[in-house]
Amino acid sequence: MYRIKLKLGLLLSFLILGFTSYAQNAFLSATASKSTVGVGEQFQVTFTLNCDGQNFRSPDLSSFNVLSGPNKSSSISIVNNSYTQSLSFTFFLQPKAEGNFKIGPASIEVQGKRINSNIINLTVVKGSPQQGTNQNNNQGNNQGSGITDKNLFVRAIVNKSSVYEGEALTVTFKIYTNIDVNSYTVSKAPAFNGFWNQDIEIPNPPPTSVEVIDGVRYTTAVIKKAVLFPQQSGVLTIDPMELECIARIRVRNQRMADPFGMFNDPFFSDAFGGVQQVKCNAKSIPVKVNVKELPGTAPTTFSGAVGSLTFDVNLDKLVTKENEPVNLKFKISGNGNLKLATAPDVSFPEDLETYDPKIGENYKASDAGVNGSKTIEYLIIPRHEGDYEIPPVTFTYFDLGKQQYVSKTAGPFKIKVGKGNGSSSASSSSAKSDVQLLGRDIRYLKTDKQLFPADGGRFFGSWMFYLLSLLPIIAAAAGMYYKRQLAFNSANTTLLRSKKATSYAQKRLAGAGKLIAENKHAMAFEEISKALWGYASDKLTIPVSELSKETITEQLRSKNINDDAIGRFTNCIATCEMAQYGGLDVTSQSNKLYQDAIQIITDIEGGMKS
Description:
There is one protein chain. With 610 residues, the protein is of the alpha+beta class. It has four domains: 19-127, Sandwich (Immunoglobulin-like), CATH 2.60.40.10; 128-293, Sandwich (Immunoglobulin-like); 304-418, Immunoglobulin-like; 493-609, Nucleotidyltransferases  domain 2 (Four Helix Bundle (Hemerythrin (Met), subunit A)). A hairpin with a 4-residue loop joins β29 and β30. The protein is flat and about 115 Å long.
């Protein structure tokens, strides 16, 4: 009995010493995203505790507009069997007036002892209209969700801010996020007023990359990229692009004030439905481009072509016969505004019959501009014999490299027309202005067969009579069936989503496999997580706003999927999230996690079909 009491006493002593050391090492720090802000400009204040705590008390924030907060979050890191935990409370604030302000200490209770944070000194200056616009543009309706322009925003990036009229510039619209964006759609695309634009093809889905801005790490993706050609001089504006996004944020639960409060941590609850889908908006800032007039005086032959171009002319025949066609082809090629390049004026002799030119375009837009060629082809038909001369043609463009107008001339072109063989429908001995009377205005291709017999009695009651009688009924029935099928398909979009759920998930998992092969494990975990969430939403027809692990578990059980497959599904998602957000290092298991995700979807598909 004495030994038992001694052991209990030692154990209690160790626990008391551990809790005392735990409280003594606790530290609450206060940081602000900016030390100098403008009136009306949004900034962020975060209070971070290096352990677990309860009963947080915020400082006096009456000098500021509190847009959101306190937003509670926590994280747990397990590295080399070493366990660390942190707890943070974030406020999004707006200053009301200019001046120097102090944000007093916040406090929190750790193991019965209350500790205070440091004081934050802040300078508030006169706000700029541009800053206010930036906040309003990016925030939209996001204030209620706690998502700000520091978490999600769109940028319009141009490679040139000053160009000549007709000179190419590239604009790239990119989304930046440090939260988990499940999906996004373009709610308003820029109109590009004053520009002619050519879209640059981007992969679907676009690849993601990582950029660091002001010390913050963002995941980025290109939404749209285009080559723009300004059509007028002056200051032109590239309109904003607006996005509607659905983001996944973790829901924080209040902790219980007991020594085992860590088990109430959202880190553990995430594995059982602690993720919420929220809608948010993002909008880029308008971009100004200075467009200069082309220098010097433009020649009369200049029609607006700008770039680095070449000009070639080809006449396919120099000797021909009456009524035999001749082709005159112009080809403009190189890098520039090829879409806007027009054919040079050609003065054809009166007795050469010509038609509107046939225009062919073969070019592609890229980051380097628009490269390719444009052809303008004239069809010429000489109506009577003789010698003809087409005067020289001149093509003029503005060369950006030389900073000057360049003119290229081709011709003259001489055509010798001989007497025809008389087989043409037009006479070769008459001038173009003469009128020729043909034997017949209309010649029938075949006159020896009739569709209907001359004797009307033989057609009535024949197989063709019945076929033509039934044809309108058959066509009407087919039309009605086709219309009903269209209505059925449009009314069953959820069924279509369910059928394609597996193929969509397999595409995402294939992308994750490539990322693993490239040692991009963090991005691979994100793709695996999105593949599983998307598969569950499409296959089980669960709206994105109601998607959670609890909902998925209930739906899978209703489909008679065994608990082992359900457990592996939720555990796979939880592992991905711990690798993304919890600091858990599972890089060495990434390939196994990828294979498990494929097997899980295969097992669920088999379970639903059985």
